[in-house]
Amino acid sequence: MLLVLSVLVVIISVLLLGVRLIFVKNGEFKGSCANNNPFLQKDGIVCGVCGKKVGEACSNKS
Within 10 A of 36 (CB to CB), how many other CB atoms are there? Predict the structure, then answer.
């Protein structure tokens, strides 16, 4: 019973995270660029999505 409940909670969580992708035309996950994360900005981390450095606009439009 606990395993079934756990699986249901995980499935519901994933579906709720994907609501924007399902219902919005050209939906995308917002804030995936390192420029949006203040903890990464302090360290000067390069974006894993588009390769831009802190302070540059994310060029990933796909």
Answer: 12
pLDDT tens digits along 20-47: 677 776 666 666 666 666 776 677 677 7
Sign of CA dihedral 13, 11, 8, 3: negative
Report the alpha-carbon distance of residue 23 to residue 2 in Å, rounded: 31
Provide the 3-class DSSP secondary structure of residue 2.
helix
Q: What is the total residue count of the chain?
A: 62
Contacting residues for 31 by C-beta, under 8 A, at least 6 apart:
37
DSSP string, 3-56: HHHHHHHHHHHHHHHTHHHHHSTT---TT-SGGG-HHHHHHTPPPTTT-PPTTS
Q: What is the pTM of this model?
A: 0.42
